[in-house]
Amino acid sequence: MKIKRSVSWLAQLLALAAVLTATVLASPANAAADGTYGNPSINYAGAVNPPTADKPQSKLWWNDGSWWADMWTTGSGWHIYRLDRGTETWVDTGLLNDSRPNTLADTLWDGTHLYIASHVVTVSTEAVPQASVPNKPAYLYRYSYAGGKYTLDSGFPTVIAPNSSESMTIDQDSTGTMWATWTEVAGDPTNGFTSTVYVNNSAPGGTSWSTPFVLPVANPHPAADDISSVVAYGNKKIGVMWTDQLTGSVWWATRTDGTAPAASSSWKVQSAVKGNGLADDHLNLKSLQADSTGRVFAAVKTSLDQVSSDPKLPQLLMLVFKPGTGAFTQTTIATLGDCVTRPQVVLDPENNLVHVFQTAPAASVSGCSFTGEAGSIYEKTASMDNPVFGAGRGTPVIQDPTSPNMNNVTTSKQPVTSASGLVILASDDVAKRYWFADRPLTVAPAPTVPGAFVPVAPARLLDTRNTAPVGSFSSVSFQAAGVAGVPAKVSAVVFNLTVTRPTSFGHIIAYASGTPVPVTSNENFNAGDTIPNNVTVPVGADGKVTLQNNSPGTTDLIADIAGYYIAGSPTVPGAFVPVAPTRLLDTRNTAPVGSFSSVSFQAAGVAGVPAKVSAVVFNLTVTRPTSYGHIIAYASGTPVPVTSNENFNAGDTIPNNVTVPVGADGKITLQNNSPGTTDLIADIAGYYIAGTPTVPGAFVPVAPTRLLDTRNTAPAASFSPVSFQASGVAGVPAKVSAIVFNLTVTRPQSYGHIIAWASGTPVPVTSNVNFSAGQTIPNNVTVPVGADNKIALQNNSPGTTDLIADISGYFIAGATQ
């Protein structure tokens, strides 16, 4: 808590612009015409400290369909309250927790018990250090819950620590052991002061505590002003974070459950952030126990306002610890010019969002007298996977125009959901009154508009190996609508088509059952090949798709569904419009594409495609190449991406489905990256309506970008999965329903096939790419994205193989149907 100086006029101007922008962009439903946001609650006369402080602590929890809070009751002490959402009032349960007015608390609901750690507060500042006071114990209260009531458990409270502290937090590890951390200040004005980070741990359930010990790491002695916080995370881990203004650092120490608590060998320490002015005494930690990656999110305040007048420098940082890498990433939450302070973090896994709440001057005020000034409470959100926050203070959520003194927002340790909604609590320490905000959380609606895409869990719809091969120049039809999660009425389906065990050369044509056979192709093959290709095709009036075997021999066919497009007349941007398959390019009728040269073809304004579209879907076939190489498809007039759509060897005839943006001239360019010539054939299947997509299920094309290349790491192991980040990267939002990418298998040691599916879901009995030893073969893939925003690829092969994934677009998220 440093002495703050005034922010420059430039910072004030920038802050005003940011506030005006935020106010225009977002206006909560609970905002009154006079600029009031949120709801006033009870008065709290008699509390020594603002009752919603301190920065790392949580005063709220969600249990049994209600929000609860530890709140100060005038003339009595700390009581448990329940939020009555019908009247938007906090109701006193009458249960007294701690009557000491000079205490603050941290709460934790673990699903069985409520824990409240209550400690006597001694606040130190940089200018005026204060020694911790002895014989002022911190207590742990544990309550059981039944029938709408909390009951103090026998043997509680227990003593966590004997002395006062500025702040204290608790969490519970995987063994049921409770952990607490705090900083203690020792010394006097004559001999100086020393601050120390302390930790303690309990027996399971907090029934008894060990002797407090100094965190056993190098230099656990920050400034007298600094604080610490504890969090359980990931796979049986406990982490302690503390600010250290003496070194400009925020430190992070971790241990594994079950190791010796006080042994230095049990703890690993590293800096989360370090540099001149990068630490202040503000931090708030949250983790998501269901997060398989074990990430920890920390909002911290810098002291850059003390060393610079540049309003663009960060005032609040989001630090994300990723155990897989053992490192932190950092992004800016707000800048010096925003005049923000005291951040709090809430995790929203259903929407994949991290919410940050913070104090800043009222929306009508430009700049601030000092960073730390009370005013209003603002909210900012960002993707949990890529926490990049917009400019400005954010959206006001608690504000009283008659008393702009809101501060010390507090939240819950728990993640929020659509069932719980989101509740925050703050205090006006001038009026001595609580305020709160309560709003619902919703998940994205289901896709409903015609032409919107709905992914489904991959499922096998056809496998002629179980019946009989498809005869020479004959066809087979399979039911594509009304099965495997696909409604009875759809406009088109996306499925992976695999040719296997053909007895001769040929090609397969996919088309809507009951319609004329088009002069196109979806799959080209030679005798003995096993060749996959992704297919997008309209569905017949009978709900079926027909596959024509144009070959003098028989072949087996396999169809694995990936999703469908909603029936009707598409009108909105990003909606898919299927067209009757039509050939747009065939260089066999002109001249092969030269070595390391390109050819463009008209994709818009022809074959039923409007003059203005965002992207097209077409089948690309390479035939008669004179050497090895690959083809890159991209929007005409744009830079050539470092990706691939089709890989081939001399003499191959290889198909692949392509989804690609269309250039401003309505054309697609195909680059032949090969020392030889090749012929190319393009058969269109449909297009996406131009404009800015906004509705669930709409397609958004992106510039082709490589998301995975195991050649730079290690091959995918035999019968093992590899996953890659599919959203929150490469221009893709954090939350999407599915992506479209080109998957290339290269350098396989043996035969096999690859299965692509949503990470975190069961492995389907399907395939996306089939290959032989030494083969390089691509296939376009449309697949749902997992809850962790990843795609999993299973290498079903007795050998290793390298995998390459190049994204071409995504579908806007919506609830599954």
Please tell me about this protein's structure.
The chain is mainly β. It folds into 4 domains: 9-439, 6 Propeller (Neuraminidase), CATH 2.120.10.10; 444-571, Jelly Rolls (Sandwich), CATH 2.60.120; 575-690, Jelly Rolls; 696-817, Sandwich (Jelly Rolls). The chain contains 1 helix and 53 strands. The strands form 13 sheets. Strands 6, 7, 8, 9 and 10 form a 5-stranded antiparallel beta sheet that branches. The two termini are 51 Å apart. The model is unreliable at 1-30 (pLDDT under 50).
Helix percent band: under 10%
The main β sheet shows up as: 5 strands, antiparallel
CATH architecture of the largest domain: 6 Propeller
Would you tell me which CATH topology of the largest domain applies?
Neuraminidase
Continuous helix count: 1
Residue runs with pLDDT of under 50 for 5 or more positions: 1-30
Could you tell me the radius of gyration in angstroms? Answer: 31 Å
Strand content: over 45%
Structural class: mainly beta
Distance between the termini: 51 Å
| Mean pLDDT across residues | 90
CATH class of the largest domain: Mainly Beta
Count of structural domains = 4
Shape by Cα distribution: elongated
User: What's the total number of strands?
Assistant: 53
